[in-house]
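We emphasize that the prediction below concerns an isolated chain of 293 residues; any contacts that depend on oligomerization or on bound cofactors are therefore not represented. The input was used exactly as deposited, without trimming of termini.
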Amino acid sequence: MAEALSDDDKSDSIDSVVPAYKEEATDDDSGESDIINSAKKIRASGLSYEKVNVFSDGKCAEEEAVNYNNFKWTCCKINDTEQGTKKYYKCNFKRGSNCPAKIYLLFHANNFEVTLFEAIIQHDHTTESEQIGIRIELKNVIVKLFQNGYTTPKAILSELDKLKIIQPKASQIASFLATLRKKLYGPAQISLNYIKNWCIEKSIVPNDPDECFVANYYIKDDDDDPLFILFVTTRNLIKNCLNSNHICADATYKLIWQGYPVLIVGTTDKQCAFHPFGIALCINEKTSDFEFV
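Result of the prediction step, given as a token string:
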């Protein structure tokens, strides 16, 4: 016979039968057996549940719950009650689904048994909740705005307002921009191993005379004294050093990368015009760094 329980274990309609449903009935309390025998379902503001199985231990019960009736169930709530601990599961056939079906396990307080209850409601796998996050079409618009120089959530929201496009939250745009920057420029925090792999990849001299490549690099992967320095140039830029007899190399506080100085390397002519060779990246501005360049 089926036994029904409500989410909050309260009943307004059958108080004359039992004052309050107690799942751990004592030996002289026949309230629970009366409900089981009469198959009455206690109804509250939430869902009504019926007992479907009893397990001798919690492990077997949880293994059965996550795949009950060949559906996928995910734990969504745990409540401690006088009867014991109730562990609720929702049907999660697909991410973002709105299926109302639920089950819960009751870990009895007075014994080691675990009872499985199922909500008296049909599964609904035909509808899904609204899409979480920014829509694909809007993401494409944000990417174009980012490429056109609108790189902050405030600037993008202003442009979306001009375009009469429904605006997402500023926090959503900020999260999307962080992902976009990582995709375009790599991770925000660079490791020495990442730099080494990038240098190896860019060490091949390209056919395009204006495409940059790593002419030389040195990396010391030491926890106590890490060190790296690399020189980036192009085929056209490196030609400037063929007829030069002196080199100018210096850094400016306005040009840094990951907090490290970027050295501008080049030469000057008789009119004091500067002709760049490339740029060098180093941890600091020691004599050894300039000698490497």
